[in-house]
Specification:
Blueprint lengths: L4 H8 L5 E5 L3 H13 L4 E6 H6 L2 H14 L5 E8 L1 H10 L4 E4 L6 H16 L4 E6 L4 E3 L2 E3 L9 H11 L3 E4 L18 H10 L5 E3 L7 H9 L15 H6 L2 E6 L1 H17 L6 H23 L5 H8 L1
Parallel strand pairs: 1-2, 1-10, 2-3, 3-4, 4-5, 5-8, 8-9, 9-10
Antiparallel strand pairs: 6-7
Helix pairs in contact: 2-4, 2-12, 5-6, 7-8, 9-11, 11-12
Bound molecules: glyceraldehyde-3-phosphate, 1,3-dihydroxyacetonephosphate and zinc ion.
Zinc ion binds next to loops.
């Protein structure tokens, strides 16, 4: 069942965070549904601009409709990740998305508000919810690299004005995390104090944590042992998610960790089975491992086990 992120956030606020997982292909999609249904968690499917153009934008939309039929018990939102204004309109008009993120965080405050407000008007007219970003994360996003020095933490003093003037449904905050597998390269760690200040300014309003992969060291070790070269990769402590949820985080974005599962599975499989050239056995292993990964992540987020209650609320 496809729902809006707004609906999910109303139910989850202050209690748990919903996992927002980026997908690009069929195997990820199947593993994602399997992992969430098995761990009984609501979830958010995230589609980036890069994911839309990987094959064709209609491909993922159509596969999601099929997955909805294959897994009738699943409750999820379909969300555009880091959209520019035009891509937001394209997704709003496609009928396949229940929410979009307009990311004008690189613009000045007034311009960010102006762009976000236009997208909110178009989205709300069709019952679609909107996430926007204030402050700027470091890391790599759509091939654009923002150094940690150029990243800007969200200013808590701007949060209320931004939320009120834009009419957004959720606010992505920059609190020291960054995209990709090399987080916290400087001295700065995650700023839970800034998160607490933001919640104080916009109490009860859903907040979003981007760049939240935990880059498990065991995963990195296995990838490197199978021929990979990920040196100095590190991520967010997943044990912080429940505290973040109490501080208003209702959506936690995870992409990199899923890529690491893919890299580990494929590297180890081809190292151990040099004679294999059939892609289905390895695809099956990946779907199972990805589902397991999703279930474990949902435990950390507190979203695991919430599905029955959601079905009762949503009818
Ligand atoms: O924030 C960026 C996401 O990890 C999506 O990455 O643009 O390479 O699909 P992508
Ligand atoms: P990670 O790179 O930490 O997985 O973050 C993903 C993200 O924020 C997608 O919007
Ligand atoms: Zn992001």
């Amino acid at each position: 069942m496809i729902v809006t992120t707004k609906k999910l956030f109303e139910i989850a606020y202050g209690k748990y965070a919903v996992g927002a997982y980026n997908i690009n292909n069929l195997e990820q999609l199947m593993g994602l549904f399997r992992g969430n249904v098995d761990s009984k968690a609501p979830f958010i499917i995230q589609i980036s601009k890069g994911a839309r153009s990987y094959t064709h934008k209609l491909m993922l939309e159509t596969m999601i409709q099929a997955a909805d039929q294959i897994f009738p018990e699943a409750i999820f939102a379909v969300h555009l990740d880091h959209g520019d204004e035009q891509t937001c309109y394209d997704c709003i008009n496609s009928g396949a998305y229940s929410s979009v993120m307009v990311d004008a965080s690189h613009e000045e405050f007034e311009k960010n508000i102006e762009i976000t407000r236009r997208v909110v008007e178009a989205a709300h007219a069709k019952g679609i919810s909107v996430e926007a970003e204030l402050g700027q994360l470091g890391g790599v996003e759509e091939h654009v690299k923002v150094s940690e020095a150029d990243a800007k933490l969200t200013d808590p003093n701007q949060a209320r004005e931004f939320v009120e003037r834009t009419g957004v449904d959720a606010l992505a905050v920059a609190i020291g995390t960054s995209h990709g597998a090399y987080k916290f390269s400087g001295t700065q760690g995650i700023r839970m104090d800034v998160l607490a200040e933001i919640q104080h300014e916009v109490p009860g309003f859903p907040l979003v944590m981007h760049g939240s992969s935990s880059v498990p060291q065991e995963e990195v070790k296995r990838i490197n042992a199978a021929g990979g070269e990920l040196k100095g990769a590190k991520g967010v402590d997943a044990d912080l998610f429940k505290r973040a949820a109490e501080l208003g985080v209702t959506k936690v974005n995870i992409d990199t960790d899923g890529r690491l599962v893919w890299t580990r599975v494929y590297r180890e499989y081809f190292r151990d089975h040099p004679e294999v050239f059939d892609f289905r056995p390895i695809g099956k292993v990946f779907m199972e491992e990805y589902a397991k990964f999703i279930g474990e992540k949902n435990e950390k987020l507190g979203s695991a086990g919430q599905l029955d209650a959601l079905h009762k609320i949503l009818g």
